[in-house]
């Protein structure tokens, strides 16, 4: 495919999968961060450390996805040649999206189909993020 069609495909994936996940996942990540910081001194060690780290990971993934998406849509594949820190942040955000993905799959299959709504809390952003990684590998 030529570069123009790849940009159109990526823009469609970003709108369909990325933006809903950015809103839902970004809000959930911010809530996790604030809840973890609010329990500082009162909660268990897991709630004081894991919740803020998970929230920061989600926020980092959202920011990296926004930066890399804007770079690709404005500059093409040349825009994906950025500092490795952005790719690491995207990877950390992808790792933060794995628990909601597992929970959505388990809940959607075993309990009820409404469990697939949990995919809007971050895992659906893995589709456009995966395409960004694929485009970077192709360049």
Q: What is this structure's SSE topology?
A:
Layout lengths: L2 H36 L6 H31 L8 H13 L1 H14 L14 H13 L1
Helix pairs in contact: 1-2, 1-5, 2-3
Order of helices and strands: HHHHH
Q: Would you tell me the structural class of the helices and strands?
A: mainly alpha
Question: What percent strand?
Answer: under 5%
Count of discrete alpha- or pi-helical segments spanning 4 or more residues: 5
The radius of gyration is 16 Å
The largest sheet, given as strand count, sense and whether it forms a barrel, is: none
Q: Report the strand count.
A: 0
Q: For the terminal residues, how far apart are their CA atoms?
A: 13 Å
Q: How much helix, percentage-wise, in residues?
A: over 70%
Query: Overall mean pLDDT score?
Result: 89
Task: Walk me through this protein's architecture.
Helices cover 77% and strands 0% of the residues. The chain is mostly helical. α1 (3-38) packs antiparallel against α2 (45-75). The protein starts with a helix and ends with a helix.
Give descriptors for this structure.
mainly alpha, globular, 139 residues, 5 helices
Quick take:
The protein is mainly α and 139 residues long. It has helices at 3-38, 45-75, 84-96, 98-111, 126-138. The chain contains 5 helices and no strands.
């Amino acid at each position: 495919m030529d570069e123009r069609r790849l940009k159109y495909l990526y823009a469609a994936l970003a709108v369909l999968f990325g933006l809903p996940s950015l809103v839902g996942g970004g809000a959930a990540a911010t809530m996790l961060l604030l809840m973890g910081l609010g329990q500082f001194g009162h909660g268990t060690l897991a709630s004081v450390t894991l919740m803020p780290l998970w929230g920061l990971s989600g926020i980092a993934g959202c920011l990296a996805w926004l930066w890399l998406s804007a770079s690709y849509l404005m500059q093409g594949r040349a825009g994906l040649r950025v500092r490795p820190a952005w790719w690491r942040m995207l990877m950390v955000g992808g790792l933060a999206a794995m628990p909601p993905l597992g929970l959505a799959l388990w809940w959607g299959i075993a309990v009820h189909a409404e469990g697939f709504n949990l995919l809007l809390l971050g895992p659906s952003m893995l589709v456009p993020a995966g395409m960004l990684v694929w485009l970077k590998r192709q360049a």
